[in-house]
Write a structure and sequence with these properties.
Distance between the termini: 104 Å
Shape: elongated
Radius of gyration: 39 Å
Strand content: over 45%
Largest sheet: 56 strands, mixed
Number of strands: 56
Helix content: under 10%
Structural class: mainly beta
């Protein structure tokens, strides 16, 4: 041991089981270098400029090193060990460890009402607790690039103490990772290393607070970041990976012990059974996800028996939520707004249950639910703004209100699988489309209510059934897509090449409303074509057919609408004419057989779907060669006649040779229109 380099009284050091009782010299400076094995080190007299360096081994029965006074600097590159490694009730300036500080029973470093200016660890600190601050201790700067381990308890425990900044680029592991409790405070925590827990949370706040948490490393274990019993975090940013059973949990205890996180931003990966859970008095201001949230339950807000509910003011997803259940809100809990411009791929995308509330949903991305995109059972959801795709069934015990895309955008409601038709089922209440553009590709089941198209533009590409009533306002539009393929299966409820509505109840369309036809593919609208766009129950139906505005895409002629009744049903039929009001198809055929066959076809005036589709296909032949070819095939298909009793009216005779002529011929007509010279074989 060497004495002070200053000219002062000698430093009295007694070496026994404990090394060093320093006399009081307020102005003096001293240093202690340990390079051998000694039995404990105790500093009991203040030495502001005392520097202690250990490259040997300090072993104590209770404490490896004890400070009840003041140490200027403490540096360990050797071994300090005891029941507790370092015990501090005084003040230490910079404390650096590049060696081993270990405790056999308690804490590697234990500060009890003490102060440490800074703690830099590049070595190993281990014990039942790795680093333990309690009883209003203070640590200014904590930097770990080594290993801190709590082998039977907590790696870092801050109990009723304060810590300014904590940066980890090394490894912190224990039964619990980092715990703050009893009004402990940490201003800034940054992790670029690894924090893991065996049986509890990697980071746990109990009645404590951290101003900001930033993770670009790995957080793993039973739970990731958990707040409980009046804990608080202002800002949480994850740009790394949280791989735990519970990713982030915000739990209060009752209405007087509320926990909160101001904002959560995930740009990395949260891979957990439960991604974000807010419950029992927990509150999250905004959850931003531009990364990936992969979980069984993505986001959940729950209440508890003390009526303390979970609240998330806003959710903003521009990344990926891949979960069995995307969002669950129940037990009177509340989510204010959910804005999605990313992708949500789930079994049930959003479930609102048992008094839960989702204030509003705004979608500019993709929301997919294999069992359901939306499931509202005993809860409530506000307005739904859809400028993207909602794919999957929608179930609700109460009415739903949709706003479609504005401008040139289009929102889509469709089935989960590509090309499939979904279902919207509402037990009680209306399905209302207020404004905007929406592709509706869902069948609708209404227990008590009606489908209301207020001032929206609804586009229908398939045959959709509405189990209930349909009502359309004067400022609304209903558009139907017509494809190249015109089937002839004779079933009004089956897809026959263009969209239509089949309504089990009544259909009422206000005067001045719009009904339009849109070509999908190469299909060309032609004079004389007729389309059954709505079929409804005759009782209570009023189409105002002569008071609607009709149009067809890229067609310059006039369109008209008519109401055609069939027993208990009523059809809205749209017919295309020329600019002078001639609604008879143009005949382009020049051969006698073709002229005769097509004229017979064009004499059909009914609305039976298969024959009408054949009629429309024939009317679409816009050139002589195609008309002659189509007429020749129709004439050939008409002979020999099948063994059916002939009807006396000319239109009905086409039904009598359905099997031999109509079904195969429609393909021939389409071939003539769309693929001249290439006839299609019908089997």
């Amino acid at each position: 041991m060497r004495s002070s380099s200053f000219k002062v009284k000698p430093l009295v050091v007694a070496v026994s089981a404990v090394l060093g009782v320093l006399s009081t010299y307020p102005s003096s400076a001293a240093s202690i270098d340990v390079s051998t094995n000694i039995s404990g080190l105790s500093i009991t007299t203040a030495q502001d400029y005392l520097s202690i360096t250990n490259t040997g081994t300090i072993t104590g029965t209770d404490f490896g090193a004890t400070n009840t006074s003041t140490i200027g600097t403490l540096s360990n590159a050797g071994v300090i060990t005891g029941s507790d490694g370092i015990y501090n009730t005084g003040s230490i300036g910079p404390l650096t460890n590049s060696g081993l500080i270990s405790a056999s029973d308690n804490s590697g470093i234990w500060s009890d009402a003490g102060n440490i200016d800074s703690l830099f660890n590049t070595g190993t600190i281990s014990g039942h607790k790795g680093v333990y601050l309690e009883n209003k201790s203070f640590l200014g700067e904590f930097n770990n690039s080594g290993h801190i381990e709590g082998d039977e308890d907590t790696a870092v425990l801050i109990n009723a103490s304060n810590l300014c900044s904590f940066e980890n680029s090394g490894e912190i592991s224990g039964d619990k990772g980092i715990v703050l409790k009893n009004d402990a405070m940490l201003y800034e925590f940054v992790n670029s290393g690894v924090i893991s827990s065996d049986n509890d949370a990697a980071i746990l706040l109990n009645s404590s607070s951290i101003y900001s948490i930033s993770n670009t490393g790995l957080i793993s274990g039973d739970a990731g970041i958990v707040l409980e019993n009046d804990a608080g975090v202002a800002s949480l940013i994850n740009g790394g990976t949280i791989n735990t059973s519970l990713g982030i949990g915000v739990f209060g205890n009752n209405v007087e012990e509320l926990s909160s996180i101001g904002s959560i931003s995930n740009t990395g990966l949260i891979d957990a059974d439960d991604g974000l859970i807010v419950s029992g008095g927990g509150y999250v201001g905004t959850f931003f996800n531009s990364g990936t949230l992969s979980a069984k339950l993505g986001i959940g807000a729950f209440g508890n028996p003390e009526n303390a509910v979970g609240t998330i003011a806003a959710i903003n997803n521009s990344g990926l939520i891949d979960a069995k259940d995307g969002l669950v809100v129940e037990g009177s809990s509340y989510v204010g707004t959910f804005f999605n411009s990313g992708s949500i791929d789930t079994n049930i995308a959003m479930g609102i249950y048992n008094g839960g509330t989702l204030g509003s949903l705004s979608n500019e991305g993709i929301i997919r639910g294999e069992s359901a995109a939306l499931s509202i059972d005993g809860g409530s959801i506000g307005s739904i703004y859809n400028d993207g795709v909602i794919a999957g069934n929608i179930y609700s015990t109460s009415g739903l209100t949709f706003f479609g895309s504005e401008g040139e955008g289009i929102g889509t409601l469709t089935g989960y699988d590509k090309g499939s038709i979904g279902t919207i089922s509402i037990a009680a209440g209306d399905l209302t489309f207020v404004t905007g553009n929406t592709v509706l590709n869902d069948n609708v089941i209404l227990g008590e209510g009606q489908l209301v198209n207020g001032s929206a533009q609804l586009m229908v590409n398939n045959v959709l059934t509405i189990d209930g009533d349909y009502q359309q306002g004067g400022g609304a539009s209903l558009l139907f897509s017509v494809n190249n393929y015109l089937a002839t299966n004779g079933d009004i409820n089956a897809y026959n090449g263009y969209g239509r509505l089949v309504v089990s109840g009544s259909a009422n369309i206000a005067s001045g409303s719009n009904v339009g036809l849109m070509g999908n593919g190469q299909y060309a609208f032609a004079q004389g074509q007729r389309y059954v766009v709505i079929r409804a129950n005759n009782d209570g139906t009023d189409y105002n057919a002569d008071k609607l505005d009709y149009w067809a895409e890229n067609y310059t002629g006039l369109l008209t609408g008519n109401t055609v009744t069939h027993g208990s049903t009523s059809d809205l039929v749209v017919t295309l004419g020329d600019c002078n009001g001639d609604y008879k198809p143009i005949g382009y055929a020049t051969t006698s057989n073709a002229i005769s066959a097509l004229n017979g076809l064009f004499n059909y005036g009914g609305t039976e779907s298969s024959l009408l589709n054949l009629f429309n296909a024939g009317a679409a032949v816009g050139n002589t060669a195609g008309a002659n070819r189509a007429g020749r095939n129709l004439a050939q298909r008409r002979s020999p006649q099948p063994r059916y009793r002939r009807q006396h009216c000319p239109p009905c005779r086409y039904w009598t040779y359905w099997r031999n002529a109509v079904k195969p011929f429609v393909w021939q007509v389409q071939a003539a229109v769309f693929r001249p010279g290439k006839m299609m074989t019908v089997r």
